[in-house]
Amino acid sequence: MKPLKLCFVFLGAATLVWPQAVALVQVAAKPVAKTVELPAEILPFLSVSLHAKISSYVDRVLVDRGSMVKEGDLVAELSAPELKARIAEAESKVEAGEADRLQAEAELAASQATFERLKEAAKTPGAVAGNELIQAEKQVEAAQALVRSRREASHAAEAALQNEKELAAYLRITAPFDGVVSDRLVHPGALVGPGSDTVLLVIQQVSHLRVVVPVPEEDVGGIAVSADVPFRVPAYPERTYSGTIARMAHALDQKTRTMAVELDVYNRDGSLAPGMYPSVKWPVRRAHPALMVPPTAIVTTTERTFVIRNHDGRAEWVDVKKGVTENGLTEVMGGIQAGDWVVRRATDEMREGAPLK
Description:
CATH class of the largest domain: Mainly Beta
Structural class: alpha+beta
Helix content: 10-25%
Order of helices and strands: EEEEEEEEHHEEEEEEEEEEEEEEE
Shape: elongated
Radius of gyration: 45 Å
CATH architecture of the largest domain: Beta Barrel
Strand order of the largest sheet: 3-17-14-15-16-13-4
């Protein structure tokens, strides 16, 4: 019996890649709402520095720092002797103008009477020369022009007097709104006026305040106007105040990359004051739902940040950017959509295009 010969033919090497068993998780779209701590500043709702409109001396200051004032209250009186002299001069000009007007009107009445008599007499032929009648008519016209001129001069004198009296009204400084005197910078005898640029008093409205919050650029999209926002101040750490989002700048500060947003706060008990620096619990909301995945699904290397998506049974690397983290999930932004399946525990060892089970 002949021995059996076995012949082996080498056909080459074949590499078999078995599908890798992994756990997948679906990308979820969820609304993002969280609270961040932001610093802020309290400002008065209204604030004004009172100046003297005309050159004058401070006669009396009726308030001091901390004084509560009502709109229209007299807070300071000024004196201007030169203005009093100008008012007296203007009054004399008004009286003189009125006398001139009355005289011109009397002359007009006399001229009109003369003209009427001559006109009546002229009806009798030869009683009055035609030239006399024409002269009388011209005198009436001249008297009428003089009356108009004197009336205009009288009105101008009255307007000048009224202007001086209106300037005199500025010698009485009144409060433009309800508030508190936060600063007093002059005393009786001081020379003030538009040329000196001296501030008399500073009045601020403290019953109604502005809380200015610098909101970071990434949180600007979720600002909800009319929403209530809580805050605390260091002076009363046990108390929580609340303000309503009322206004926003609609422009970012180029240095801080923040947008100024104002809260309206009514300081009913007077415990808040302008200049305080509160800590605001700012609500962060997104206008659209965020795409959320477990943090383990995100791979970060020195070159890129990505998730591994299941694309027709194969691994696909998708570049993403990380956002906020909430309830154990991390927001991702990139080329993925809600409902995509990604590897729950992804690593960069899982090569792109590898089969997944």
